[in-house]
Specification:
The chain is α+β, with helices and mostly antiparallel strands. The protein has a single domain (about 5-115), classed as Aminopeptidase (3-Layer(aba) Sandwich). Helices cover about 25% and strands about 25% of the residues. It has four helices and seven strands, in the order E-H-H-E-E-E-H-E-H-E-E. Strands 1-2-3-4-5-7-6 form a seven-stranded mixed beta sheet. Strand 2 (about 55-60) and strand 3 form a beta hairpin.
């Protein structure tokens, strides 16, 4: 893995939004009920600059953003965070970038929360295997109100 994991900077906001929109289109999730409609896409350097929140990017050797992941509180549920907006471009998949991003996020989360929750789509089978390999267990009911009503698969992990 040649990529470098680092906190998001204001200069990364547009690239992260483009990355997320690319991946959402790839999986047919460019519609309401997903991150596609998130009004904060494009301003993560501000949104995640709060206590208990962070967003990291994976930058390749040429300085291009190839992945990202965030941690934020799950409103209304004490001690539970949400793994947010974790996406990697196709060329970064299978290279260890996602693993490095997830480990960075979970290390941060463990200092602030007791559990980590995430939502994803049923057609993202590789993501399911990845999360399960990393100790997330599938749950039947959503936690909190993320606004991502189209996300039909939920996971939870103790920290």
């Amino acid at each position: 893995m040649n990529e470098r994991i680092r906190p998001i900077a204001a200069r990364d906001d547009g690239a992260v939004e483009a990355l997320i929109r690319y991946c959402l289109k790839e999986f047919g999730a460019d519609h309401a009920g997903t991150a596609w409609m998130d009004p904060d896409l494009g301003r993560f350097s501000q949104v995640y600059d709060l206590p208990g929140r962070r967003y990291w990017v994976a930058e390749d050797g040429q300085g291009r953003i190839v992945g990202g992941v965030g941690i934020g509180e799950l409103p209304g549920i004490d001690g539970v965070c949400e793994l947010q907006k974790m996406y990697c471009l196709p060329q970064a998949r299978g290279t260890g970038v996602a693993q490095a991003l997830l480990q960075t996020a979970l290390l941060f989360a463990a200092r602030h929360y007791r559990q980590c929750y995430l939502e994803t789509l049923d057609n993202m089978a590789a993501a399911h295997r990845f999360y399960e390999k990393n100790g997330f267990r599938r749950i039947d009911q959503p936690l909190g109100s993320t606004g991502h009503t189209a996300c039909d698969v939920k996971y939870l992990k103790g920290l």
